[in-house]
From TrEMBL:
Name of the protein in question: Cytoplasmic protein
Origin superkingdom: Eukaryota
UniProt-annotated stretches for the region Disordered: 1-27, 194-243
Biased composition (Polar residues): 13-27
CDD domains: KH-I_Rnc1_rpt1, KH-I_Rnc1_rpt2, KH-I_Rnc1_rpt3
One MF term in the entry's GO annotations: RNA binding
InterPro entries: KH_dom, KH_dom_type_1, KH_dom_type_1_sf, Rnc1_KH-I_3
Record Gene3D superfamilies: K Homology domain, type 1
Signal sequence region: none
Lineage: Eukaryota, Fungi, Dikarya, Basidiomycota, Agaricomycotina
Organism: Lentinus brumalis
PANTHER family: KH DOMAIN CONTAINING RNA BINDING PROTEIN
Matching Pfam families: KH_1
């Protein structure tokens, strides 16, 4: 799995300058994991609440589609740092007022709740800071409490940062978190996004996308291989789907398919790649079929390839900047 990102500069205050974002205008996209019930509150009847949220803050906001049997959805908010922070503050206020399934405590003048942000594993160092100084400074200045998970979510390179407090304190904390993320946005290149339910054998999110360079498409799951009749195929095969940013697909496939072929060979899993993006995010779906052990190895190899490409691109960009300054 990807290694921990190097700790950023040893500072406890919010950054005063930041590297240019990929969009060139400091646009932040911040995702959060919400329950299906909370998602209904955020959207509102006929989309009324989310429409008002967009109008009041100027952000783009939406919630992922419902997946049968999965009780979580992903909230995505995109806009300026201030707009995103204000949007999350308003969302928290809505959840407290509606008293849904979110844990809410009303034993003080300002009811408190929590929001679970999805943060790239490689950007956690930017939020936590060296020796935890950054996260402590954010908590002290905002009054919110932050708890960062240690493990990445299944089939992704994202982790959860739970922000607890009042709507105002959560909004302040998210604004500072957003500035940290934009400061080091290069570290987030190649993040494999988490999708609730991914890894289950389910029918949602195009479980059988049209793949390319896939191996053995016509073979049944439990029938013996025609080339080795004495070695029946394992019966405990699992199907796992992960989404990969379109601009990173080429680095996984490699020239003439050499890299994806090597990943298939080393892992023993069958990996197919959708020809087209599966939704408006522009991501491509990778479908991995194999034993749990083989799939785990395939995911490890895929994530390592993404991490190597991310490091290569950051180094290339830094070199180009240095050449421009000379």
């Amino acid at each position: 799995m990807p290694s921990d990102a190097p700790a950023p500069r040893d500072t406890g205050s919010a950054p005063q300058s930041r590297s240019p974002s990929p969009n060139g205008n400091d646009t932040l996209t911040l995702r959060a994991l919400v329950s299906t019930k909370d998602a209904g509150v955020i959207i509102g009847k006929a989309g009324k609440n989310v429409a008002e949220l967009r109008e009041q803050t100027g952000v783009k906001a939406g919630v992922s589609k419902v997946i049968p049997g999965v009780h979580e959805r992903v909230l995505t908010v995109t806009g300026s740092v201030e707009g995103v922070a204000k949007a999350y503050s308003l969302i928290v206020s809505q959840l407290v007022s509606a008293n849904p399934s979110s844990p809410v405590t009303s034993n003080s003048s300002s009811p408190t709740t929590a929001i679970r942000l999805l943060i790239s594993h490689n950007l956690m160092g930017s939020v936590i800071g060296r020796n935890g100084l950054k996260i402590k400074a954010i908590q002290d200045s905002s009054g919110a409490r932050m708890v960062a998970s240690k493990d990445m979510l299944p089939q992704s390179t994202e982790r959860i940062v739970e922000v607890q407090g009042s709507s105002e304190s959560i909004g302040q904390a998210i604004e500072e978190i957003g500035r940290c993320l934009l400061e080091d946005w290069e570290r987030g290149v190649g993040t494999v996004l988490f999708h609730p339910g991914v890894g289950d054998e389910r029918s949602g999110r195009r479980p059988h996308p049209t793949g390319r360079r896939s191996n053995g498409e016509g073979r049944g799951r439990t029938s013996p291989s025609p080339h080795s009749p004495s070695s029946p195929q394992p019966t405990n095969l699992r199907t796992q789907n992960i989404s990969i940013p379109s601009d990173m697909v080429g680095c996984i496939i490699g020239r003439n398919g050499t890299k994806i072929t090597e990943i298939r060979r080393l892992s023993g899993s069958k990996i197919s790649i959708a020809k087209e993006p599966h939704d408006e995010t522009g991501e491509r779906m990778f479908t991995i079929v194999g034993t749990p052990e083989a799939n785990e190895k395939a995911l490890f190899l895929l994530y390592n390839q993404l991490e190597s490409e991310k490091t290569r691109r950051v180094g290339r960009d830094q070199q180009q900047q240095e050449e421009m300054q000379d």
